[in-house]
Design goal:
The complex is a heterodimer of chains A (292) and B (469).
Chain A: H1 5-26, H2 32-39, E1 56-59, E2 63-67, H3 71-80, E3 90-93, H4 104-114, H5 116-128, E4 132-134, H6 141-148, E5 156-158, H7 178-185, E6 190-193, E7 196-203, H8 212-223, E8 231-236, H9 238-242, H10 245-254, E9 262-265, H11 269-277, H12 281-284
Parallel strand pairs in A: 2-3, 2-5, 3-4, 7-8, 8-9
Antiparallel strand pairs in A: 1-6
Helix pairs in contact in A: 3-5, 3-7, 8-10
Chain B: H1 13-17, H2 19-22, E1 25-30, E2 37-39, E3 47-49, H3 53-60, E4 66-72, H4 79-94, E5 102-106, H5 110-118, H6 121-127, E6 131-132, E7 153-157, E8 173-177, H7 180-189, E9 201-202, E10 208-209, E11 231-232, E12 269-274, H8 281-284, H9 297-300, E13 319-321, E14 326-328, H10 330-339, E15 344-348, H11 360-368, E16 370-375, H12 380-388, E17 392-396, E18 410-414, E19 424-430, E20 436-442, H13 447-455, H14 458-468
Parallel strand pairs in B: 4-5, 4-7, 5-6, 7-8, 12-15, 15-16, 16-17
Antiparallel strand pairs in B: 2-3, 9-10, 12-18, 13-14, 17-20, 18-19, 19-20
Chain lengths: 292, 469
Amino acid sequence: MVLDLDIIKAFYRSLPARMEKVGKAAGRPLTLTEKILFNHLSDLSRVSAIKRKSDYALFRPDRLAMQDATAQMALLQFMVTGKDRSEVPASVHCDHLITGRIGAGEDLGNALGENREVYDFLRSVSARYNIGFWEPGAGIIHQVVLENYAFPGGLMIGTDSHTPTAGGLGMIAPGVGGADAVDVMTGMGWELKFPGIIGVKLSGRLSGWASPKDVILRLAGMLTVKGGTGSVIEYFGEGAESLSCTGKASICNMGAETGATCSVFGFDDSMAGYLESTGRKCLKWQRPTGCI
Amino acid sequence: MAEANRLHLTADPEVFDQPEKYYDQLIEIDLSALEPHINGPFSPDRAIPVSRMKEEAAGNGWLLRLSSGLIGSCTNSSFEDLSRAASVIEYALRNKLKLKSEFIIIPGSERVRRIAEEAGLLDIFRKAGARLFANACGPCIGQWDRGESKGLNSIIHSFNRNFAGRADGNPDTHAFVASPEIVAALSLAGNLLFNPMTDLLMNPGRDFIRLPEPESGPLPPLNTSEPPPGYRIPPADREGIEISIAPGSERLQKLIPFREPEESDFQNIPLLIKAKGKCTTDHISMAGPWLRFRGHLENISGNYMIGAVNAFSNKANSVLNILTREYGPVPEVAGHYRDNNLGMVVAGEENFGEGSSREHAAMEPRFFGVRLIIVKSFARIHETNLKKQGVLTLTFANAADYDRIREDDWFSVGGFDSFSPGSRFRITIHHSDESLEYIDAVHSYNENQIAWFRAGSALNLTRGLSLQQ
């Protein structure tokens, strides 16, 4: 079992009741970013008072993902705490230490030799603390998260700047430093200055040579590398619904290039379809069927 | 279940009706009018519509020949991405066109690689002479060994970043970012100016070929009947698992918990460095070759503050060792103080520790025994990271007091008895002419952060709590 399915099922079961509380506390219509972040506040009573772009708040993420470069010091620190396991579901992905030189087979073989001690450490420390471990060659962290772990409405953090890729599947997923990962693994709240929210309305439909990538290439040109700083980019509109789920993920990935905290799309049919084709039909439908 | 919760997984209808009321900023993009873009070089926000590239490139004198085209990475390696690029290349092969640039594919995961293989996409790429790299970051994060230096050259890829030197370490490589299908088309042309919507390519038989609009089939279901390749499930019985850290390793080192502070740690301690001007986490803990040691605190501490400018000499990585009266590199002097059981003080100016949030920049000073970092202002994340590691972070009550600090000063810190949110510290400066000065300092600790400090570090506090459980 890759997915912590019970946790996600419990998440969706309790979502209507929690969102009712959040809605009442806010007393006004909410953007998707606010819904997800408010729902993950350590202290729900703060909902009505929090000011965007000025107030800090503590959140409870559902997941943590770490790549093999940043995971090393994060897990060495976690060892010091004497805890028996990570307090939130977490995964480690070996993708950063493989040099492209000749081709897949030889390059992977060389990396296994050069980095053996690092991989041995990460494999054993992951096993010890109940953390999912992805061997070198299994894939790049953000693609693996999208295929296996991301779920609409969730909050995750990752120790890599392109963690926001999971926004393509409706997650708020900021990239953070190793210190934040340690906080989350030890069960401390995760602190974030409540972001501003940039709405991007997509109308019409792509055609010909235009692709989802061009949406973010164009937007990066409009916002520049600083324009998204301190904000979440939230996409909506009929154009958003016409994009594939993986196309949405490409757009959210490169939102990092505007300095944005992360990017997110609302749940739609493309996400339902992607959950189904990646073996997570049970997340799509009310009645679980055919789960791995 | 997501389906049943649909209304909770999108914004409220009122937001869609009046978005300008609910978003801090509103941007509209009409997908029907959107043209393919090529962004670059050297910055991902330099957006150029394909149809405008001819004039942009001519005006800037960019090298037009493309040495390499690369697709995939975490950004654009979906089945849709690979199949749209493959559809363009497949048509080109059928029409006797060849790739004019080296072409590299980096699948995002082994699962995607397998479905691309089964769907015949990788065969198309191989027939065209493309190379498949491992399912890993590789060239997207600079892990790309191109053999001998390519000198001045241009590349195009579907990754996310294209800052100077990002892909291959060569600052003379001009990198452009585009969709996988545009990368495929331009690699067939071997030229930055090619516009597949208007331009034709000539094959060896002298036929003019127009590339077709890219197409993609639907994502085939992934094989989820077995665990994904390369995934290790944590075992049920984890108690006895030994964590592997090779003895004598230069890349990994077990951390030794920092001890709790004593007031004497803060009495009569020398200045290590007064940093002048901008001091980012990159000045404090330089990246590049040092990243190799990111799992070894002692070894990576060899880069501590080597990028910071000494306010007294305007030089980087040269500070006075007050015990020997000689100048030396910062890590060497810090190590000498530590070996003599001396704490030390670091002073800085505005927004100290801005930049990437790497925790090594906060762990290294604590490793050497830096007790106090006092600045005009901190970057908040770095300040919090220092607090977590048990380093006392103070801010000058009067920023001009920064100028009172001399190169051979000793310091004593008072105010621990009343340490509470909003309290102040008084620092005694012992100058070498035996005169004394007193400066006031403020802090931003809350109750919880003060508990970190008193425990020696946030980890120590957590450790104390989990041992009690």
